[in-house]
Amino acid sequence: MTLVAEIDTVEENKNIVAQYRRLLRHAKPVLKDGDNAIIRKAFNLAMEAHKGMRRKSGEPYILHPIAVAQIAVEEIGLGTTSIIASLLHDVVEDTELEIEDIRKEFGPKVAKIIDGLTKISGVFDKTMSQQAENFRKMLLTLSDDVRVILIKLADRLHNMRTLDSMARDKQLKIASETIYLYAPLAHRLGLYAIKSELEDLYLKYTEPISYRSIAVKLSQTKIARNKFIRDFISPLESELHKQKVSFVIKGRPKSIFSIWNKMQQSNVDFEHIYDLFAIRIIIDTEQDNEKAVCWQVYSIVTDYYKPNPDRLRDWISTPRSNGYESLHSTVMSKTGQWVEVQIRSARMDEIAEKGYAAHWKYKENTDKTSKEERGLELWINKVRDLLQRNDLSAIDFVDEFKSNLFTEEVFVFTPKGDLKVLPAGSTALDFAFEIHTHIGAHCLGAKVNQKLVPLSYVLNNGDQIEIITSSKQKPSEDWLKFVVTTKSKTKIKDWLKEEKKRIADDGKEIVLRKLKNLKIEMNQEVMSKFLHYYNEKYAQDFYYKIAKEVIDSKGLRNALEQIQGVEARKDLLGDLKNKEIKLTTDSSKNDMLLIGEDLAKIDYTLSKCCNPIPGDDVFGFVTVSEGIKIHRTICPNAAELMAQYGYRIVKAKWTDGHELAFLATLKVKGSDRVGMLNNITRVISNELKVNIRSLTIETEDGIFDGTIQLFVHDTKQLDKLIKKLHMVPGVMGVTRYYN
Ligand code: MN
Fold first, then answer.
1. What CATH number is associated with residue 537?
2. How far is 387 from 425, CA to CA, in rounded Å?
3. Could you tell me which residues come within 8 angstroms of residue 653 by beta carbon, excluding any fewer than 6 positions away?
4. Ligand 1 centre from 3 Cα, in Å?
């Protein structure tokens, strides 16, 4: 028997209808004749398509598209087309309906938006690089219809608001995508309210404890804060009334995320954050007067409170490129606390809250392009610029895009007085590239406000810049250290890449000429041998170094010979990799190496750095000119040889045989006494019949220190000797010495 949860469909349908009505109520001011009918048609279609589908929370699915449409209307200020697109935004993705069906019913505009939304819907289901690539595609749609992005943001906002019903891992994933891409995007589009909410929701799900603690403290301090705000604004209010300014004053707490951020950055606790709120004075005035009135209000505020001159921001005379207009000042309250005051018109406030979509409403008032729109266009142009650079990897693109998102701008002028907006921190060289790639590439220096400055000069607001160029000048690697804009960086990198390619081509010619003299043809195989020999990864780097004489072209011949030497040996050795070399000490043939079963004969020498003797653990190393060298595995050079030239290492093992003698060195230490030396030599020569090659002795303060070189057959014999020497009275230590 199955238990089915009882669902009250009557109650559910009532709720759906209520939500739909609420949407229409909010949309009403922007609706034209006939809009109602077409919205209803979209609603019915979405109802039908999502019939029976439920969200993770158990709610009917249709509530989600309605909520997205509601955000589009109420919080972004979009109109009929966007409502329809929002209502239908998931149907092509999740149901049987096709984009063609949408086009037939609602026309090409809606179809295009939904197509865009469907295409970018998979943005985050992929690996990081895929995400970045998709994000780039998503921004590409900006040039088609920015509403795709706006509806996507509304969709994301609703998903974040309803994140509770998701599993924990999904919550974390969605939240981090949101902070990574969507919040910056909202910021760049000037949707400050949505940006703040997305950030707060991010914090709520990723740092729930911090989030709750700040929220609780904000509400606990609310009464005191409100009193402070009342005291602060009361003299301003009476003066504003006196001067007949129509206004609203809001004392707004900063977002939980921004408070948290500040706590993290300055490493202080909540109690030590002083700017928990900002005072906003919103003026109701004609657009023609708004600038004058804002400054009038500024003058009133600063009559009462002393302003911090460093903190004045005039985004009315020069709006930010996302359209933001406002006058900001930080003033000292009577209680000695800095307070940020924002002064703006109702129109500016709406743009600041809802972003540039809101300003469409005002656009009709003036026939010349408004400043905000110019700013936005500027931005879209920049994005387009970036997108056209298709050799920039998608990850780089997103990184650079993101880093550009949050940087503040600096406003500067050309000699003719044209305004240029660049990211804060931009240098004279960035400015040159902003004017023209050619000017950037040949930039020699600049005159800022008539004074000569270096390329790395960091621009200040209001600077007027004249670029000095020279046809002899060209970009260098160093330039990358002080340019800031994506445009300069990519142009310089492009130029350097080109330059390198050009130089490498010269190098290639040199190499080909050399090889021709040697009667060798350049091919893939020869190249890969060179790369191996010179430890380079790419042919271009090899050619480049030849041209730059980092690699001496005169050495190519020698290199080839050496390569061939090694190869010849390798050939001779066959696939030694899996075989073991047997080192024999057969006296008839000195220094003989036997390989595998067929006993091919190859020269070998015992390396001087560790003097191996039969019985030692050894390996063979194929040298370029001296055949195979045998090292002890504990040779001080062994590790490096094996790590760097693993392919030249061959296994080696001694065979039995006692005829040959090998040189070994012993150090003997003991107390000096009469007859000591005699005892030692007798043990060595008489008892074990070992030949001593040399013997040196030092004595100091009664300590005997001897170094003995002697010929032994193998380690067995040597070990026996060491044991015997230990037994000589007075000997305290006997050790084998490497060389
Ligand atoms: Mn959706």
1. 3.10.20.30
2. 23
3. 580, 581, 582, 583, 618
4. 30
Query: CA 398, CA 184: separation in Å to the nearest integer?
Result: 11
* 232 and 182 within one domain: no
User: What is the rounded CA–CA span in Å between residue 711 and residue 723?
Assistant: 17
In a shared domain, residues 516 and 640: no
How many residues in the chain?
739
Point out the domain boundary residue: 155, 181, 209: 209
Half-sphere exposure of 11 toward its Cβ, with a 13 Å CA cutoff?
4
* Same domain, yes or no: 649 and 673: no
Answer yes or no: do 103 and 196 share one domain.
yes
In a domain, 670, yes or no: yes
Contact 345, 291 (CB under 8 A): no
Q: Which helix or strand (DSSP H or E) is residue 434 part of? A: helix 428-435
Q: Are 530 and 605 members of one domain?
A: no
Residues 518-533 have pLDDT tens digits of: 787 888 888 888 888 8
Residue 589 lies inside a defined structural domain of this protein: yes
Give the angle 268-272-276 at the CA atoms, nearest 5°.
Answer: 110
Rounded to the nearest angstrom, the distance between the alpha carbon of 150 and the centre of ligand 1 is: 13
Q: Is 504 within the bounds of a domain?
A: yes
Q: Give yes or no: residues 424 and 496 share one domain.
A: yes
Query: What does DSSP say about strands 600-606 and 443-448: parallel, antiparallel, or unpaired?
Result: unpaired
Answer yes or no: is pLDDT of 599 > 60.
no
Which residues make up the environment of ion ligand 1, defined by Cβ < 5 Å? 90, 155
Phi (first) and psi of residue 4, to 5 degrees: -110, 130
At 396, the amino acid letter reads D
Structure confidence by residue, pLDDT tens digits, 260-287: 988 888 888 888 887 788 899 999 998 8
Say how many Å lie between the CA of residue 64 and the centre of ligand 1. Answer: 7
> Of 609, 631, 654, which closes a domain?
654
Residue-range definition of the domain harbouring residue 44: 2-209
Separation of 403 CA from ligand 1 center, angstroms?
28
The gap from C-alpha 235 to its chain's centroid, in whole angstroms, comes to 50
> Are residues 69 and 63 in contact, defined by beta-carbon separation less than 8 angstroms?
no
Same domain, 181 and 77: yes
Q: How far is ligand 1, taken at its centre, from the CA of residue 155, in Å?
A: 5
Whole-structure pTM over 0.85, yes or no? no
Instruction: Report the catalytic residues.
Output: 93-94
Tally of domains in the chain:
5
